[in-house]
Amino acid sequence: MALHANGSAALSGEPDRFGEIHIRNVGKRFGSFQALNNVNLCVRAGEKLVVCGPSGSGKSTLIRCMNGIERHDSGTIAVNGVPLDKATANRDRIRREVGMVFQSFNLFPHMNVLENCLLAPMSVKGMAREEAKSIAMHFLGRVRIAEQALKYPSQLSGGQQQRVAIARAMCMKPKILLLDEPTSALDPETVKEVLDTMVGLAQDGMTMVCVTHEMGFAKEVADRVVFMDCGAIVEEASPAEFFGNPKTPRARDFLSQVLR
Predict the structure, then answer these.
(1) pLDDT class for 1, splitting at 50, 70, 90?
(2) What is the DSSP letter of 50?
């Protein structure tokens, strides 16, 4: 039995692809609207990938297809070597290894911070409460909010709630962390605290895919930047190449607007 870099065991005969996402010719429609159009993308294990682009370009649809929240209509997606198809068992297996952070926090209002973090490890992974609590307090500490563990979401600021949402995702010890515009619902004063949290997590070596308009984060953290428009990937490059010498007129126009 092989071991992954994070110490988890690979199943006998299973390809060692933990942390990888392979997307081939993926399409997605909402009625007559083509949200994704023949998208091809490979996310490497441990890579920090930032997806950017104008509103309506397909960014959030793409990241939501990566763990089956949205079902793609055509093409193939494989996560950690497992096909993301109609098989419920495959989707459940993938979601146990992929954390998701939304722009709207999605915390359970009737549960305190600690209970929000305990729910998935205990119900999905079958952890004992004390083990789950130890992990939860560790990650709440990582996002610098452990002292708020017994408070309810309504008692926290937006930035604090988003840090709890990140800790909750981390409590499942995912191989991949997906972040869908995690700062877009925050006021400017709290954006930095969430970005600082994300920068810290990026140093842990997990695969991270982040949809964001925060170009400073992309410059500091990303290994690669993917630019989307009209449901397609228009350009992908290293941050230095993308920000210093964008190849397409559409990317140049986008950067001229967001970097003003």
Answers:
(1) very low
(2) E
